[in-house]
Structure formats: structure tokens, C-alpha cells
Hints:
Elements: E1 6-7, E2 10-17, H1 25-38, E3 43-48, H2 50-57, H3 61-78, E4 86-89, H4 94-104, H5 109-113, H6 116-124, H7 134-147, E5 153-156, H8 161-179, E6 201-204, H9 233-241, H10 261-269, H11 273-285, H12 291-314, H13 321-350
Parallel strand pairs: 2-3, 3-4, 5-6
Antiparallel strand pairs: 1-2
Helix pairs in contact: 2-3, 3-12, 4-7, 4-13, 7-8, 9-12, 10-12
Amino acid sequence: MTTTSQSAGKNRVLTGDTPTGRLHLGHWVGSVEQRVKMQDDYDCYFLLANMHAFTTRADQPGDIRQDTLEIVKDWLAAGIDPVRSTIVLQTEVPAIAELSWYFAMLIPFNRVMRNPTLKTEIETKGLGDSYPFGFPMYAVGQCADILAFRPEFVPVGEDQVAHIEMCREVARRFDQLYCGVDSHAEDEAYEQSGAVFPVPKALVGKVGRLIGTDGTNKMSKSLNNAVFLSDTPKQVKKKINAMYPGQSREPDEPGDPSINPVFQYADVFIKDEAFVAELRERYTKGDNLGDGHVKAHVIEAVNELLEPMRARRAEYEGPGGDDAVIDIIRAGTARANATAEATLYAAKEAMKLDFGRRDLNWR
Length: 363
């Protein structure tokens, strides 16, 4: 059985974001930068997981809709090209919802609840026992988000690796149960063994966990410690200048860069590695290098990164900007549905459910 994990000789990539607000520097270094770089060499699908946003914000449909548009603007600003890549709106791909149902039969409930990412979200969002049934279900749905497009790679942040591992388990279980793939087969041999679903691999960005401007927690909108890709130069300066350097010291006193979160930003965003090494050495020695001096270099580097993004985003901020974004979403989702429907039919063939094919005249 052939799969669609390759297009025009390119291996496929699938990743995306849940619309919870604008993207920040943590998203950039964790996944978005990698997505931008992969567009020429891979068949890229980028998913707007707006259905998943309803698991905790079902009473805020208007906000979810606007956040969905804002994320697309951030993607376009960051360098995602809707011609080279396919932008997918989750709620308009019915194959995802149907595959979620089938996959839910293949994975025990207690396995879903052992997912460390899910457990962490329940704790950090203070959901207690009040979360809807759909909240753990979204972890299964995320498997369908990915496998509907049969990718080889899934670029993610470090905290999402557990989700990808569960997706890999679901792919193996389906292929073994319905396609006769040997349970001892190597992951790379699944497609050659007649599998519907390849076993995807997680690709973690160069920084798995970027510290937020509070200097302690991972960067997050909900913790109010984020530098957004759409922030103005003044906002970037204010946020980074407010970061606690992990210690109290004078410029001529020795410091410890390893406990100063600003140095993580220096390592990540300042392009000149030799210059960063010099800053680190001077800081350690107490060679008349204050924390404000280091921050100034970081601010300059971050604004240099964001300036072209601000310019590209401005194209979609004025009158007609949202309509242009919606047109991009529609065009990408139409292409995505062709891929996802082919996957769904292949899965239904394997499950002996191939009683007919539907025509999605989506527009």
C-alpha cells in the first residue's frame, strides 16, 4: 500500500499551534524557526488547532476565531510562505475528527491520562477535576492531527515530545492491527511493510525551553512573561530590561552567567558567538560589565530578529487584512483536505469500512 508521506520527492512535515494568542520568542526558537527553514526541502503542513482551543475556552468562540487569525499573521510574518507550505484549519478537515474516533479505540484511557504533558496542563491551568471530557480527548485528537497527513517529521517544542510519542504508539497499533505489520518491525520499515501510517519522528528546536522574562518559568502568555513576535522595539526593551539577572552585583564584581537568564538570550539571539563568549568571560571576572550592558546587546539582537517580522505582519494589519488571511486559510485547507481524505480512505480500507468515497466540495 502506498502512502502520501512524500510529495514531489520531498518528505512531509506536520506541526502547528493551538490559537491561544500571539506567538512569542519561545515559539520561534522551539519550532517556528525550524519550520521556516524546512519549507524548501520538505512538504510542509502547518495546522491551526482551533478545535483544541475549545477544550478550555468553549465559552470564548470569538476570541478563538481572532486568535486563529493572529497566529496566521505571526506565521506569515515569521516567513511561512502559503505557496510553498500548506496552512490547515483543523475544524474544516473532517477526516481529523473521524480518525480521532477510530484512534480512541486503540489507546487505553489510563494511557492517555499518563501523558505527562496532559498532566502538566491540568495542573498549570488549575483545572482540577472540572475539565471537560474533551480535554483528555484532545491528546488523542492530536494523534489524528498528525497522522491524517502521514508526515515523517513533527517539529515541536520540548514539552510536546510526549504527545508525539503517543502518536507513534497509535500509528504502530493501527498498522499492526489492520495492516498486518509485524510488531517487531523497525519504525523505518513500516511503510515498506504495507502500513497506512508511517511512524513520525519528533524534531525539537535548538532551544527546548526558553526562560520567560520572569527569569524562572518557561516563556508563556498565560504567565505574562513573554516577548511576542509582534512586540514593538519599546516593548522588547521594557520586558528584557525588567528581567532579574539571578544575582545582585556591581559591574566590577564577579558574576555567574549560568544563573543569569539574560545569558540564555545572549546565546540564542546574538549571532556573534565569539562576542557572546567575551561577554561571558568579562561577566565572570567582574570586568566592568553590568547587567544592563548585557541586556542592551540582547535587546539589539532581538529587535534585529523581529524587525522584518514586524514589517511583514503590517501588511495584514490594515483594512482587508483579516479577509486576506481567511483566503490563505481557505486555499491551504482545500489542499489539505485532498491529502487527509486520501489518508482516511486508506485507513478505512484497512478497517474494511470502504463503502464509498465522499467529495468535499469545500470553499
